[in-house]
Automatic annotation (TrEMBL):
The keyword Acetylation does not apply. Keywords: Cell membrane, Membrane, Transmembrane, Transmembrane helix. GO terms for cellular component: plasma membrane. It is a multi-pass membrane protein. This is DUF421 domain-containing protein.
Amino acid sequence: MEWIYSIKDPILETILGSLLIFIVIILVTRIIGLRSFAKFTAFDFAFTVAIGSIISSILTSSTSLVHGAVAIVSLLVITFISSYLQRALKFYSNLISNDPLLLMDNDKILHDNLKYARIEKKQLIAKLREANVLDYNQVRAVVLESTGDISVLHTSNKSEALNDVILEGVRKKP
């Protein structure tokens, strides 16, 4: 039964640690901003995984609460600095994030772009179904976003055009 519960388990410390680390994350996020947990780049993804790992270490008593809090605050400060650098330095922004990629241009599937992005046609079609697309004619664009999400831009009015501003920064070719 030790694998279910052990008297040596620091249950009260885990509960208190959870509460305290929750408060630390809320306070620091309020100071630095919600952008810290946004999913925009590979950097943001790595940050979120690292925060989860630190929280896990704290709650399983692998590290002290203060050590974990310092690690979380440090990561949040690094994220804050990185978001500033992304706005200030184009080369830094290009270094840590991908530009979105066009997967469909109106009703035309861009097979080379699918291949480059390692997305199968059936996955693309599943995204069209999720967006309630009934016919390829409704599609104005399908974009693989820098976050890995797929955006489907469509309309039921076949003559309605897509404003070019919406596709600003989207790569047409890999």
